[in-house]
UniProtKB/TrEMBL annotation, chains A, B, C, D:
Keyword Repeat found: no
Reactions mediated catalytically: 5-O-(1-carboxyvinyl)-3-phosphoshikimate = chorismate + phosphate
Protein's UniProt name: Chorismate synthase
GO process annotations (BP): amino acid biosynthetic process; aromatic amino acid family biosynthetic process; chorismate biosynthetic process
One GO location term (cellular component): cytosol
Domain of life: Bacteria
Function comment: This reaction introduces a second double bond into the aromatic ring system.
Key words, A-Z: Amino-acid biosynthesis, Aromatic amino acid biosynthesis, FAD, Flavoprotein, FMN, Lyase, NADP
Residue positions binding FMN: 124-126, 285, 300-304, 326
EC number(s) recorded for this UniProt protein: 4.2.3.5
Length: 362, 362, 362, 362
């Protein structure tokens, strides 16, 4: 049941890195939305391997097909199944993985949990699994944009210790996409690219922080007390591979302030209630307040590295391992569309829930 | 539907700070567990107001009653309803709140979402709501302890900029409970208490970080890809009031390392597969690996302060507000049992799910 | 998890026949609905024992209390907890039940499933459990009535072989409530009452059929393919105690017709699409079509009888048993409000779901 | 969300009769079960059109492909996606359906609910949708058989007024499959086939009753009070196309008995507690009691008939319609594997739930 996410806008993803394919079924998409495979492909292309010199050189077209739920270019309100076939399976690279557990990967825990594992690549724990999420996220984004004018933009905020200066209120998708590292701070992005290439040459890897802003989110989304908006956002992004931390608004840094420094005072902006500051990150008491929703996610350095590491086999024998497959030295550039997708899925689900429980906004 | 949490061990909490009472219904508790109101009360007493000089002086006994699901001291496998009556309602303190929105509180967002709000105190967004969680958590803790020997201990790791040094592997509940601030670092805890009292005298508030360790968690808990253990833990604690961030294992600091520095190498500990380090925080690929699960939660400074702040009324008129009610200058000491409860609820649900999907461990 | 029902309008019931009390938590009730304990009590009074000479003589006032979710007479949008205390516990009547399994009761299966059972009465399998359902149903009914003008009326259609003639399109609640057997066919109802009293005097019991009509249900409710309206209605009423069968529209009798006899031809009623006949029972393809929803439920004869029966003890010893407690010779008169409640819960949940997925109707 | 079914063994089906294909994602299948596309195909072949002279002559191979979740012939514990491509699309037959609503079909209600509809055939309301159910049911059946020795056999009990005599305790799958009408009563089955052919020649259709027995079901399945086994079974089969009624055990006929006639007395069968009769149908208080589970489902006559009928267009114009497409004159022979699948899905989900909540049986 762990591969199902959402309530009214509910997705079920499927697929391992090797095997027939990966994809998603979206159950609960509102009817009469115009959508095409091409629009979804745009997001998948932002996620796919081999898109630039700083990602894995694996070439995978990741071409999607819509099997159901869309008729004459519009959603039917019935389940939308989207499939991407698996290709380019150099599984001989993975032979060693049949027995050796890769450090900080999920090989050992999948074996422990299920007593079986598709060792031809990452199996279900491969980032390839996120194809279904990104495809569904593309539809969620469109619903939010059409129904409420919501814009969701993620970008690389920090790579290792190189931190960019970015204004969440005004950053544009074009700015994000203008660099291969998806950091819309020109000076930083060059240094980030250099660092990623340097680390790759050393057979090592690095991580960093992705920031995401959602602008134009309607008032009232979020369903206390457990399905608070920040709680569902935290779960959504912490379910992405390689994540180690989540913050909203002031985050951990906010704990160094006093209440009088931290509180967001209110004012009236020509009748609209607004906050002077936005340390709340657009959510108060688990409910969106109309300000920008701003969150940050920590991605650890890629676990797969060429450097030799100590490990064990599936029968507990101590051995060493040096990865031979092609892999990303830094997952963040490709993680950006994944974060946007997860945020879109949460907001879309809560948008429909709010309409269901409380009716149309006045 | 947002007040329901968990799947096999599913809880529904109810209650506002004012009104008849608060509580919880636990649907899916395994049968034949010995449990008493007294055991639950122990946890509620750790959560209740007025327990020490650094919490709110509100006196609330928060005495719980078990209405169903327990017979002759044992759980029946049927829903367990636990109720705590509301008392000590000095709602005249709150008259101003009928119209003035408290900054960084949920008054404005509840009004926006529901078009109505119980303004006599925090209503549903009051920390009083967590009584049901803590009561259910007490039962979840006991199941985990009896069935698998799991120990869950949370403690205050940092108050504002005073950070304690605590060894998660050996810290004991007695050590945590030996200070009123629930920081088991004697030197730090005195400074923390002084700081909290100082801040209270200034009419201000502070926040900090709670750390939680779960020891003895069985291998294999967590249900990829969405219900990864860290994802469900993140949601669980981020649904607590006043939280702004979540980390597991190396967290945000881990993003400053390279892969070769960050990866947890494996070794064989007399046949058991273990990791040399634990930057993963006990979870790999969303599944527990048998190491300690370690997480940290950022709590913002209490929003309620005596200092005067700018705000608006529910009709958008700009006014000022200075809180008159009794409140906590720092929520962390009372948040410790809440964090433990939420972690226990997640682990207990996944323990039952794992038993259901994969059967008993060998 | 089995005591939770519904998605957007989600209820969790709790309570055994003996112990502190029974009740319900409603999670997801729309805000700003006017509701009072008195309105709920009206429905509970239709359900309670001792209401007439043909029900069990047990006197239970079943007075309800609203603990949360309602403020100044209106729903808050937060969980509504409703509790009824248990009273009048003549549990000495039940001593035999600690060891002897009552035929066609749930004693043996509860012991088999849970390994424990509250034997002081029916425990969780007691019809007393339905108090929470009826209370929640009262609120669901009101939402449906206010938001869409829906009327839900159930009545006794048949007692054993005495079958009433009732016109679902015009029957009124007053007519139903005008007889203690809740059969709005004056001639039949007298014979039914006589038969029930006769059977009671013989120490035996009887069953029958309840019919329910929902009038004014909006077009479009139901969520294929699994949550078809008839599927959710079937589950809802088949979860009531003592039910053995469910029909919608033409039901089993419809299988004796040919397609040309059975199909509901369409016509245009001044622009509105209507069906000439209603063998579909108001639902086509799992979705309401605007015609009356009509369903029938088979209730078996009460399992508790004074006549001596063969049975076994919980250790498998063969014994005899003759019930001594007070009980209903026929559950149908009291089942009527339970059926209405379950139908209302399903329709209300689907009403909110439809609004969420598809937006407001034009 | 309505295309998702089950909790621990959760399926999501997708697909319209026309478009890319239909299928299912199974989320929560236990790991290490041996399964092949060939085994699933066996069940799909029992369901497919064109299998005999009394079904629709449409030729559809309905060849399934497993896209994920199975590795080297065994389940991984990860989602299993199964796809069947759509073929043989004579959609010109359906041109009339773009505007004319077929009586007792879902055309009008889908338009009312979603404001859009794939009119090239039945769309989502087509029986073709059940391919995903039958595929998932094949896996559920195998789990139940391997883990607990459960056998599920459905068969045609009645066609119109021709009722077969069948002993649920001993009927075999071979007997069922030995006739094209799937009625294991040789004398009746010939008459049924004749009747179906006769009705088809008249351009009409007929319905009937399918009975299903589950033998060897473990004690303790079912989760009161809402997820009682009979309630979930009722929902499961009532979500199949063309169903109008459900019975378990004595069903509607049982309402004609007195309690003393109806109750199932207990006896001890060499230490095992058994019932003398089985009017309960294998379920007491919502929990399986170890006796055969027996249920019956009413299927209405096929709505598609060649005879001319009155109807309206999607703009309310009154017209006539005579179906031209190929269709089944009686759905029951093909409904048999669908019923088995739904029963298997419910039992498998409850088997896993029971193991989760209560642990392994002793």
């Amino acid at each position: 049941m762990g591969s199902t996410f959402g309530h009214l806008f509910r997705i079920s993803t499927f697929g391992e890195s090797h095997g027939g394919g990966v994809g998603v079924v979206i159950d609960g998409c509102p009817p009469r939305l115009e959508i095409s495979a091409e629009e979804i492909q745009v997001e998948l292309d932002r996620r796919r391997p081999g898109q630039s010199k700083i990602t894995t050189p694996r070439k995978e077209a990741d071409q999607c097909e819509i099997l159901s739920g869309v008729f004459e270019g519009k959603t039917l309100g019935t389940p939308i199944a989207i499939v991407v076939r698996n290709k380019d399976q150099r599984s001989q690279d993975y032979d060693e993985m049949a027995v050796k557990y890769r450090p900080s990967h999920a090989d050992a825990t999948y074996d422990a949990k299920y007593g079986i594992r598709n060792w031809q690549g990452g199996g279900r724990s491969s980032a390839r699994e996120t194809i279904g999420r990104v495809a569904a996220g593309a539809i969620a984004k469109k619903i939010l944009k059409e129904a409420a004018g919501v814009e969701i933009i993620a970008y690389v905020k920090r790579i290792k210790d190189i931190e960019a200066v970015i204004e969440p209120g005004t950053v544009t998708m074009d700015q994000v996409e203008s660099t291969i590292v998806r950091c819309p701070d020109a000076e930083c992005s060059d240094r980030m690219i250099d660092l990623i290439e340097h680390v790759r040459n050393q057979g090592d890897s690095i991580g960093g922080v992705v920031e995401c802003v959602a602008r134009g989110v309607p008032l009232g989304l979020g369903d206390p007390v457990f399905d608070k908006l920040e709680a569902d956002l935290a779960k959504a992004v912490m379910s992405l591979p390689a994540t180690k931390g989540f913050e909203i608004g002031s985050g951990f840094a906010g704990t160094l302030l006093t209440g009088s420094q931290h509180n967001d005072e209110y004012y009236s902006d020509q009748g609209t209630i607004r906050t002077v500051t936005n340390r709340s990150g657009g959510v108060q008491g688990g409910i969106s307040n109309g300000e920008h929703i701003i969150l940050r996610i920590a991605f650890k350095p890629t676990a797969t590295i060429r450097k030799e590491q100590r490990t064990v086999t599936n029968v507990g024998e101590e051995v060493t391992l040096a990865a031979k497959g092609r892999h990303d030295p830094c997952v963040l550039p490709r993680a950006v569309p994944m974060v946007e997708a997860m945020v879109a899925l949460v907001l879309c689900d809560h948008f429909l829930r709010q309409r269901g429980q409380c009716g149309e906004a006045d």
